[in-house]
Give the backbone structure.
Amino acid sequence: MPNQYLQIDGVATYVHHTGETTLPGTPLRQGHGHVVVCLHGAGGNGHLFADLMSELEAFHTVIAFDQPGHGRSGSLDSLGEIEAMAKFTGRVIDELEISRAVLLGHEMGAAVALQTAHDRPQQTAGLVLCSAGFSFAPPEERVDQMGRVRDGKEKRPFDPTAFASKTSPEVMKKAFMEGMKTDPRATYGDLLACQQWTGGARLAEILAPTLVVNGTEDREPIRSTAAHLTQKLKTAELKTVEDTGHALLLENPEAVARWVRKFLERVPA
C-alpha cells in the first residue's frame, strides 16, 4: 500500500493510501468513487485498515493515517481529546485537498468520525462506524490497567475479549503486534479521551448517511447498545458480521467491505 508523510501542525503524520504514489507534500490523486478516510481505534494505527483498503480500492479512493503518537506518526502522546483528534482529522483532509469524504472509524475512530461529522457537516459525505455502541467509554479497570502499563508496573496485556471464538491465533498475534507500535502513553491517553467524550449527546445533529457495522461477538456494551446508537442517528442502519469480534477489521475485512460497498452505492457522490 503506498504511503507518505504529511506535516500537520508540526507533526510528521504517516498516511496510507490506495492509488498512485505521489511526491511528499503533493495531494493524492483522487480516483473513482468516494474518498474514504479511515480512523483507527485506541492504541491503533492506520495499517490496521490495510486488508479493508485492499478490498475497497477497486471501487473507491481509500486513505488511513496514524494519529499523533500512534504507529509511525510523530510524538509519543495521544492528543488526549476526541475533539482534538477530530480537528487533526480535519487538518489532514484539508492538506490532502479532499472536498468531501466518507469517514470510516473503528472503535475510538468511530467517535472521532462522529465528532468530525458534527464539526464539518459540509465535508462529510457519509459515516461508517465499526465496533461502535452508544457509549465509547472503556471499562474503568481497562483504563487503570493501561495506566499501570504506562508506568512500567505491568506488562502490556493480551485481551482475548477483542476476538470471536473462531478467530485464528495468527490474526490475534497480528492485532497484538500492531498494538505494540504505539507507546502505552498514547494508548492510555486514548482511553481517557473516550471516557471523557460527551459527543453522544449531539448525535441527533448529525445528518450524514451512516452505516454501523459490528461483529456478532463484539464486546459488551457494544452489542447491547448498537441499536440505540443507530436510533439516535437519524439516517443510520445497523449491520452485523457473523463470528466476528471487536477486531473485525482483521478478523473479516472481506465481509466488512461488502457492507461498506453496498452502503456507498447509495451515498450521493
Summary: Residues 82-95 form the longest helix (14 residues). The CA atoms of residues 8 and 91 lie 7 Å apart. Strands lie at 3-8, 11-17, 35-39, 61-65, 101-106, 124-130, 210-215, 236-241. The chain has one domain: 3-264.
